[in-house]
Amino acid sequence: MAEHLSLHGADADAAVEAMYAAHWRQLVRLSALLVHDQAAAEDVVQDAFVAMHGRWSRLRDSDKALAYLRQAVVNRSRSALRHRAVVEKHTRREQAVGTVVTGPSLGGARRDAVRAALLELSQRQREVLVLRHYLDWSETQIADALGISRGAVKVHASRGSAALRDLLSVWWEDPS
Amino acid sequence: MNDQRITDLLHEAADAIEPGDRIEAVRAATRPPERGRGRSWWAAGGAGLVAASAVTALVLAAGDMPDGAAPAPADGPTSTATPTDDPTSAAPDRSERQDRLEQMRRASQGVHAVYYVGDTPAGPRLYRQLLTMDPADPLGVAVAAAVGSTRDGRRLPPEDPDYRVLWPPLTTASAQLASTGDVIDVSLGGDPQDDLRSAGALTPEEARLAVEAVVRTAQDAVGKQLPVRFRLFGELADTVLGVATSTPVTAGPDLDVLAHVSLSTPFEGQVVDNDEPFTVTGAGTGYEGNIVTRIQRWEGTYVVDQVPTIASGEGTPRLWPFSVTFDLGGVAPGDYVVISQTEDPSGQGDFFTDTRRITVID
Fold it and tell me: How far apart are CA A150 and CA B286, in angstroms?
């Protein structure tokens, strides 16, 4: 993740190709922790790359481009999820059928449980936890990216962790 | 401590995800407009810019067709024009029956119409594009396509670069025939930040066309001119894009909402063998029903052949089907554009066109 791409003088097409090769997978995974499903995550990140292409003349640097992509993915994931929440609320009401997704294995079930639990958190808690634990960002970085204070980051992190622990109590101690 | 466990769990959950490849989609979305796009654009009679009609007139004047003059008779090899309706004797119901037959034929092939917006001298209008689609749910697929998406919510832009979808980018749609059989239910979703209740960035005219595109696409898919009932995020909607939808919406008058010429075949990018007769079909209306269809080089203005035909009938003003067959024997392989154009009696550049790009092979 720390490798540095030299995109000095690259045009927007080349920059997108290089950034895609280096970061597509991780960005989709990041988005998948923030939204409801993988296809939605791919849509979000695809749109982020398209947006990055349009802004390349102002970025012109792989670090700035990556920062832009991550920010775009976080923001767009939020929109995608909000949209989804409205749709699902309706769908649930109409179908009145609870959908429990379980993976084919213990690990799969735990992974599904983790992603489902994230969706139970408040938006800010989810974003703070994902940026901190998946991207390993500092409180300052998170505060800047989300436009909130460092104190707020701390609060969301601590409440989010506690909520996640409750939601995942079954899986918490399981070392498998 | 808790923190490390959360880190582990999140990585485990995320790293199991194997993203699909979207590089082609990214490339497609960031590709600059193709060379020739500008020409294709004028050929579509684009009126998005003030200068559009002047540009059109200039290009035509430099081409093989006198500006505003009646089209010369075909001087190509052995082209034939077949008015599908005889304006003097055809009863309206005969033409309607033909429409129905054509619809049935298309349905059996999994081909359905989707209405998209394109520019004309009269402002934005709807064009009808045929799409091959999943026969399992043609209504759902067609209506989703009309808002620019697939049934599972992915982007699906029009095949023809001259067309566009006016709905906000994240709009999704599904549709079904109500159990009563007298109304089509269309359910819309999307990004709530783009409030689909109001017109948003669209002008009232564009909003009306966007809704009309869905209504007409749904009607074509079921083969009946049924009214359409709209739901937004599941709730019955009083307005959609600012258009009143408290009662089910019917289609507007053809001549007010449709481009006055619209091609059904060929499809954009079709490969055509120059040994085979090449048939262009579409629907149109206009001054005395005259439609001229020409084939010209994609690059340059050389016209291979042009054929006049008449699309007209009696009864309610509407678009009438037409069909023209070209003999492409001797036409050099390469890229060409098929242009069907209504007559312009005023000579003011006041005509409608629809275009398709084709590739001719030996």
Answer: 67
B37-82+259-361 CATH pick, 2.140.10.10, 3.40.50.10420, 3.40.109.10, 2.60.40.10: 2.60.40.10
SS3 of chain B: helix, strand, coil, percent, to 5: 25, 30, 45
Residues in chain A with pLDDT values less than 50: 1-3, 89-104, 176
Residues 18-77 of chain A with CB under 8 A from chain B are 20, 24-25, 28-30, 32-33, 38-43, 45-46, 49-50, 53-54
ipTM of the complex: 0.85
Write the residue in A40, A94, A172 that is nearest to B5 by C-beta. A172
- Predicted confidence at residue A2, as pLDDT, reads 44
State the angle between helix axes of A123-133 and A12-34 in degrees (0 to 180), rounded to the nearest 10: 120
The CATH number, out of the four listed (2.40.50.100, 3.30.200.20, 3.40.190.10, 1.10.10.10), of the domain defined by the range A101-176: 1.10.10.10
Residue B21, both tokens: 């490849």
Closest residue to B17, CB basis, from A38, A93, A130:
A38
Q: Which residue is closest to B236 within chain A, CA to CA?
A: A90
Torsion A20-A26-A30-A35 (CA) sign: positive
Residue B88 has pLDDT above 50, yes or no: no
Q: Are B292 and B341 in contact (CB under 8 A)?
A: yes
Sheet containing B277-284: which strands, arranged edge to edge?
Answer: B80-83, B320-327, B277-284, B261-265
Cβ separation of B191 and A83 shorter than 8 Å?
yes
Give dist(CA B248, CA B237) in Å, integer: 10
Q: Pairing state of beta strands B353-361 and B334-342?
A: antiparallel
